Amino acid sequence: MTSPAPTILAAIDVGTNAVRLELARPEADGSLALLHQERDPTRPGEGVFATGAIPREVANRLLSTLRRYGALCRRHQARVRAVATSAVREARNRDEIVERARHEAGLELEVISGREEARLICLGVLHGAPATRRSIVVDIGGGSTEVASALGDRPETLSSVALGAVRLTELFGASGRISERKLGLLRSFADEAVAEALPKRLPGPRSALGSSGTIHAVVGYAASAGTAHATRRQVTRSVDELARMGLSERRRHFDARRAEIVVAGAVILESLMRGLGLETVTAVDRGLRDGLLVDLMRRTRTPDDDRSVSAAAAAFGERFGFDRAHGEQVRRLALRLFDDLAGLHRLPASSRRLLEVAALLHDVGHSVSYHRHHKHSQYLIQNADLPGLTDREREIVARIARYHRRSTPERGHSGLAGLSAAEVTTVRKLSTLLRLADAFDRSHHQPVRDLRARTDGRVVEVRLRARSPCDLELWDAQHEALLFRRVFARRLQMKTTRG
């Protein structure tokens, strides 16, 4: 009997300056063995911040690279996550780029938010960190800057500033020698952007880990010989020195492209350190692609283990004043149904967190209006920034929440348009479990203490342990029995005990 081929993971990062690929194999000890990596300086962000769109010739260059990366991933039968950051995120023709990536390269290119980018960078830098260690991670990209504070490798705060080294350089024409007046404008602009987007102070040490090529370049120039960290005073001195240099002089210290944007990058780092009260920054070699690989590995091995997704969902719900006690109760009951009936629904374990988020947020649309709130919930979730979910996962969560009441998720219903056959099946099964869990807290008073479910032939028996009378809940659940039978081909029976 032959052993199954080892899982290969692939991370593709479409940044502002370059496109990168890493292939790795997860090891038994939780580490990743790097198999292959590539970097192509296709400069996807060229012209985006000035014109608002990716020019045709740049798009063609990008797609040529993605076609090659897609072929490599298929050759290795790799599980892939491909993401695009600020340049594609802000391009008005982003949908065209995503569609071309799908059809020409066979890749689902996901345009991630700044906060999801910060989460992945944090995970990549801090993977394996002691669970009690507090850290701050910063990353200065071409179009945006990401900041995260974390306990262990779990982020506590995630922030993104729409300011990067390429963007700031283009805005101020700052690639050559920079006058004192222009340098003052650069610093004021960066300080204002940082102050508006980031908290004044973050929990954690007064030192940060910096993961980007820009931070490597600035720290490498500013730091004392033999060290990998720079103080705020050293960074400030470097800003002044680099601004006085002409481009040709800077190229003696940095590669040609980096020399053009390094002053802007140093100004942003200086503003970050000043705004966050940081004393030192240490350059590290890990970042976004490492985070993508770790995230893929965790989803492969323990898809339910990351509590950051439900925490992000709860925080999103709080912004809209949702009934948290009801949401948490429905989440708990829905997950119990999912776990107890795994042999019946036969959905992958990765579906569990989709149900979890949908259960937490199914009523978030109340903030807009009670009437048709299920549709308002769908809209809010579709447009939410929920780090830890891909765009497609968020879309499926939104559809599950949409079907928690009123219209049932029948095949062919307009609310399921745009989903694949497999996604329709997932939404039908999970929304049916959600409707039942929601019914078990119809009063919003949490009368059900716990439940257990089991399949007995053609019957699914649900035993409820109640702390108080739950007649309303049982009456409402009976209305879901017909849908349950259509979806799962089983009759539903409910029994209640007090205790």
Quaternary status of these chains? single chain
Distance between the termini: 52 Å
Arithmetic mean of pLDDT: 93
Q: What is the strand arrangement across the widest sheet?
A: 8-7-6-9-11-10
SS-based structural class? alpha/beta
* CATH H-tier superfamily of the largest domain: Hypothetical protein af1432
- How many structural domains can be distinguished in the coordinates? 3
Sequence stretches where pLDDT stays below 50 over 5 or more residues? none
Global geometry:
elongated
Q: What is the CATH topology descriptor of the largest domain?
A: Hypothetical protein af1432
Account of the protein in words:
It is a single chain. This protein has 499 residues and is α/β, with parallel strands linked by helices. Helices cover 49% and strands 18% of the residues. The chain has helices spanning 48-51, 56-75, 86-90, 94-105, 114-126, 165-172, 180-197, 213-222, 232-244, 247-250, 256-276, 288-301, 308-319, 324-340, 342-345, 352-361, 373-382, 391-402, 421-439, 471-479, 481-488, and strands at 9-14, 19-26, 32-40, 79-84, 109-111, 134-140, 145-151, 154-161, 207-210, 229-231, 280-283, 448-456, 459-466, 491-498. Strands 8-7-6-9-11-10 form a six-stranded mixed β-sheet, with helices on both faces. Strands 3-2-1-4-5 form a five-stranded mixed β-sheet, sandwiched between helices. A hairpin with a 4-residue loop joins strand 1 (9-14) and strand 2 (19-26). The longest helix has 21 residues, at 256-276. The model has no long low-confidence stretch (mean pLDDT 93).
